[in-house]
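Notes from hallway chat w/ T.B., transcribed later so I don't forget. T.B. wanted the structure written out for a chain they're using in a teaching module, and asked if we could keep both sequence and structure tokens in one place. Agreed to drop them here.
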Amino acid sequence: MWFDYYDFLKIWFQKIKIIHYLCRCKKINTLYKNIIPLMKIIALEEHTMDRAIGAAANTLLNENVPYLEAFFRPNQAASPTLQMLEMGATRLAEMDRCGIDMEVMSITNNTQWLKGSEAVTLARQANDRLATLVSEHPDRFRFFATLPWDNPQVAADELRRAVNELGAVGTLIAGRPSIDATFLDDRKYDPVWEALTSLDLPIYIHPGFPCREIADTYYTGFSDTINMRLYTWGFGWHLEAGIQVLRMVLAGVFERFPTLKVISGHWGELMPYYLARFDQALAPDVTGLPEQISTYFKRNVWVTPSGIYDYDDLDFCIRKLGIDHILFAADYPYIPEEGGRPFIEQAPLSQEDKEKIGFGNAAALMHL
């Protein structure tokens, strides 16, 4: 009996060796994938748009955002399309095609620019709709809540409701929290930070349309297409998103809320590349903070590629922030998801580090 069992094990070990050998052969790659499960991929910056919020914010956009016609022109790589409204079969099919196991959905409308009871009602309704999607596909979707930032205490209450009752895994804000030049460092937003730290969940600080005054000064003088791209996804809104995080550091937000978690897309919206300069020019003897600027970034900020699949950027951010602070995001449907899995699988990293980026860090950050 013992020898029968031993021979049985020998046969199966030989089969395993054969499988691992065959996995190197491209012709049977599909067979191998069916035998050995692929690494999980969780994409964190995957968007939709809410029709009701879009309609309510339309006048504000037209009055305060230049180059809108060029931005919404069809066939622009980063322009909103009907894909952004689709949250069912088409999106799931695209996820399956690209090897994305789970999306954390978010609304990129300017909910924070709306005011009063309208903002509260529309935010609640939008979060309810996202929660319904998650309930229908709990193994494929999670969501970041959208908040009525016009009233920070009400925003904090809606965040708690979205998390505790609906299952949200944090919040995402697309741009400044107000239509004017008010940024997230303002102390009036402390109730939101209190809620996030008590829930131990992150805020994703996503780019949005910069102040019009900035556009009129820096992002003009070329064709409408170039002006629009320079102002938005070519440079301008990334710089503003990064500045929001920098201002939070300088204002002491991470001193008052040392466990606050921030996700910053597009490899940290330019900020990691200037950490050494920040430490040099904005040292503790200037800022009055007990730590260097880079210390707060390394402790409180996680970054994603947001569809910028560049190994030099990946390597730099790992060296600056550490592997445990690198997450994955495709920025769908602004950027197609199909390049995401190959980017991680072919990265010059250990399998353990690939899995951290693909799903492990996100699962730990948001308790998935």
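Follow-up for T.B.: The chain has a mean pLDDT of 90. Might be a good example for the class.
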